Amino acid sequence: xxxxxxxxxxxxxxxxxxxxxxxxxxxxxxxxxxxxxxxxxxxxxxxxxxxxxxxxxxxxxxxxxxxxxxxxxxxxxxxxxxxxxxxxxxxxxxxxxxxxxxxxxxxxxxxxxxxxxxxxxxxxxxxxxxxxxxxxxxxxxxxxxxxxxxxxxxxxxxxxxxxxxxxxxxxxxxxxxxxxxxxxxxxxxxxxxxxxxxxxxxxxxxxxxxxxxxxxxxxxxxxxxxxxxxxxxxxxxxxxxxxxxxxxxxxxxxxxxxxxxxxxxxxxxxxxxxxxxxxxxxxxxxxxxxxxxxxxxxxxxxxxxxxxxxxxxxxxxxxxxxxxxxxxxxxxxxxxxxxxxxxxxxxxxxxxxxxxxxxxxxxxxxxxxxxxxxxxxxxxxxxxxxxxxxxxxx
Length: 394
Ligand SMILES: Cc1ncc(COP(=O)(O)O)c(C=O)c1O
Description:
With 394 residues, this protein is an alpha/beta fold. It has two domains: 136 residues, Aspartate Aminotransferase, domain 1; 244 residues, Type I PLP-dependent aspartate aminotransferase-like (Major domain) (Aspartate Aminotransferase, domain 2). The chain is 39% helix and 13% strand. The strands form three sheets. It has a seven-stranded mixed β-sheet with strand order 2-8-7-6-5-3-4, with helices on both faces. It is globular and about 70 Å long. The protein starts with 5 loop residues before the first strand and ends with a helix. It binds pyridoxal-5'-phosphate.
């Protein structure tokens, strides 16, 4: 009997919730107007659906409707936020601050700016041995802030080790100096409570396929109240989204993003503890079944904040890729899917001071809405058996 695969890679992408698919379907073949067509009912219907979605998303993250623009995903949102702010003639200067453990969709635009002569400060993070591994040092950030700092960009939750950066404190430091703050919140939105007012951010990226919504659609929060904040659009043309992101709006995708986020926020109070329990069950099971399992990233058991569905562990003396090959029923990752094009050792684990052996022996688990306790127990059994076989050289 073919065992159904156990999908434990929800940081890479998530299954679209059937309720989200149902909400999107009419916008493919019934309400199929172009939201930019203002001369007929089809267009009005589509535009109305987009504005209802915009209002719903804004409410879910504590923003105003006009603060939300739609994009093709977090990669585009990060590029627009970072390049759009720094390349703008109204930018404060040619200096940007970020962190070594950001996602490539932030690190690569920064690299592009650096090649164009912008000075990029990449802050380090606390190592494995520290109390809160992966966290940046607020004092180091404060000392790095300058009058010509055009932007600070710090992710809210890390896609590999799930640690949360102290965004609200970073927000205060930046707001006091009127330095725009962007956060890549792709892994946080829909997983934990996120309120742009509490975080004091000016720009925030998010993506539907991380929260049981469709691929290819995302958004960028832009705090319009910040009158000095100006973005240079990357995509020009039809002038959609207040000219900040031209192109026909992906109406079914946008409806899907809003519905996915609405469901996440409704179910957060029960889903966060459920996922945290499954994660604890998984880690306890692995520790019991396999010798020399070590946690990568912050330890939630001693109160350090970590995404509830995230686990990243090193299997001492084993090779993560080989372990995955020996457990084909499991969908896991050895690092960020988005770096599949660049299969380098994890820059995040590297930044925590991991040596090559530890990086090679590490696997990332991303638990999601459709995972069950039975699946977790099965995964522990499969990994335990595979680890034993590999240790026996079988
Ligand atoms: C933290 C983070 N930022 C950005 C992205 C890119 O998102 P998208 O696939 O929507 O472009 C990802 C996706 O893997 C991510 O995990």
